[in-house]
Structures are given as C-alpha cells and as structure tokens.
Amino acid sequence: MRKLIAILEVLVLMLFMITGCMDQDPQDDDLIVIGMSQTGAESDWRAANTESMRAVFTEENGYRLIFDDARQQQENQITAIRRFIQEQVDYIVVMPISEYGWEAVLEEAYDAGIPVIIVDRMVDLTNERLMTAHLGADFYAEGECAVSWMEQEFSSNRNLNIVHIQGTLGSSAQIGRTEALLDAVMSNPRWNIINTMDGDFTQAKTYEVMHEYLASCTVLPAIDVVYCENDNEAFGAIRALGEFGYDIGVGGTEVISFDATRQALLYCREGKISLCVECNPLLGPLVESCIIALENGEVVDQYQYVEEGCFVTNDITQELLDSRSY
Ligand code: GYE
User: Looking at ligand 1, which atom is closest to the CA of residue 231?
Assistant: First the structure.
C-alpha cells in the first residue's frame, strides 16, 4: 500500500511539473520583461513617444512589454507599478505624470530588486538610488531657448503682453518651461504676463480656457506673445484667437510652442507659430540601449539628456518636414 501511495505521489508531482511547464511559453524564458507605465495619450508628442517604445520593445527584439496607459492619473501609475512588482518584471519604465509622490512606490520596486528607468519627465526623490536612470529632456533649457528668442525678437524698450498657457501642473515639462519664462520676466521689466492658464497639454482644454478668457474681456487685450507649453496647446490657442479676430504671426500675436511635431512645423512654415522649440519623443532606442547596458552589467549614466533644437519659419524646409515621423 505504501509503495502505491509513493508511486501516486511521484505521478502527481510529475503531472504538476508537466502542466507547470505547459503554462509557460518556452520562448518567454528568454524574453526581457518590461513593465511600462505611460502617462496617457494627451498629445501628439505622447502618441509618438508610445509608438517609439512599442516599436522597440517587441518580442522579435527579445522583449515582453506590459504596457499600461495611466490616462493622466498618477494613482493609475502607482497601481501599475505595484502590479509590475508583483509580476516580478525585469525592468520598470515610467513616464511620470508629475514630479512628486513617487518615493514610496519606487522604494517598493527597489526592495524587490527591480531597476526603474524614468523616461521623459523627472521624479523628485530624496533618495536618488531609487531610480536607476532618467532619460529625457532638459525642460528648463528648452524654455531658455524660447525666452532668448523673445529677447532677440522684441526690442527691450517696448512693453510685451504675454499670455502663458501652462502644461499639466507639477510635471517637469511644465515646471522647467514655466521657470524659464518667469526668470526672464524678472529680468525684463517690460514683459507682463497678462494671464496664466492651465491648458493641461491638450488642444481641447486650451481652446476652452482661451476662449473663455477672451469672451470674459470687455475690451480684447493686445496680446504680443502666447507662450504655449506644447504644440497641442498652440493649436487650441490659435483657433480661439482666430475666432476673436486676432492677427496671428509677426507684427500681430506671436505664438511660441514646444515639441516641434510635424503639424506644428507646418504651422510654423505658414507663420502661425513663430517659434517651435523641439522636444524629442523618440526615446525608445535610448531606453533600449540603457537596458542592454544594464543587462551587460555596465553602470549607466544616471542622467541622460537628448539634443534638441529650435525652429523659426525660415528653418522649415521640405527636407525637415519629410524627416519628421511624428
Ligand atoms: O511636451 C507634451 C506632452 O512631457 C515632454 O508632455 C512631455 C510633454 C510634451 O504631453 O506634448
């Protein structure tokens, strides 16, 4: 009888082993598993950024990508990161919506031994070891590019009325671009920000707030510059300004925008946007090279910034437009 029980136990064990193996795709063993938490889908830049990640992290390239769209909610990002930790992914990649509120969840990832790569916007951490690397843009430098153009474009002895449309409040892209403008206003006494609005990086919200603002004015203000913190905000603002009869472009209301997506470059060629400050969304290959280096046991630079430029109407060649994939 004992013998029979022993044989049965062995059989049950073998069955478990076989079904356990069947559950797992044999190929999965070789794949690097990436848990990725994307901010949302608020802008053309974001769509291009997601596309760039999806193009790189494919099974053919050796990855299994678990992609989560947080729909512009930080709580969704935190929930996704906790799920990635439970699933014991190899790497966590986060495009954080805001700079703040990450310490606790990133500590959990750190304790689980999972490297965290922050992409695009930054996170504000007291313990920087919680983040393996940050790959993205220097948003203050982008803002500096815009304000130095303004300093050249407008003579210092004329008053400048500026409408400032901010991006998602608390995001690094908003913080850096806003700070550069505010610093420049401090050193240019004739620059006045006549209104600041939250456009949340979207076309629809910016159209709405701009329209509401202009509709509330008994006399329409003279606006020299609209400083939009991304392209989609510029598209929304231009539409609202047009409906109120503003003359857009040199000699009228000049629009500044960040990202330099193809659509914005087309607007720039037409003179509807005076300055496009570039922000590169195609970060997939950079994230991959960071992961490859980590896989090879190399130490990676904790801060990696991408090169970016600024464009005015005369810079918009057909070649530039054709080379823009987003
Ligand atoms: O400029 C904007 C997007 O964080 C750099 O977020 C990114 C910004 C980008 O929605 O279009």
Answer: 11
Which helix (H) or strand (E) covers residue 259, if one does? strand 254-259
pLDDT in tens, 76-125: 999 999 999 999 999 999 999 999 999 999 999 999 999 999 999 999 99
Q: Which two tokens stand for residue 321?
A: 């437009």
The mean predicted confidence, pLDDT, of the chain is: 94
Query: What percent of the chain has pLDDT above 90?
Result: 90
Phi, psi of 74 (to 5 degrees): -65, -35
pTM: 0.91
Which value, in Å, is the radius of gyration of the alpha carbons in the chain? 25
State if residue 278 touches ligand 1 by the CB under 6 angstroms criterion: no
Sign of CA dihedral 317, 318, 322, 325: positive
Q: Which atom of ligand 1 is nearest to the CA of 173?
A: 4
In the predicted structure, residue 74 carries a pLDDT above the cut 60: yes
Distance 16 CA to ligand 1 centre (A): 49
Cα–Cα dist 274/35, whole Å: 39
Q: Which of 165, 259, 283 to mutate to test the pocket of ligand 1 (most atoms within 8 A of CB)?
A: 259
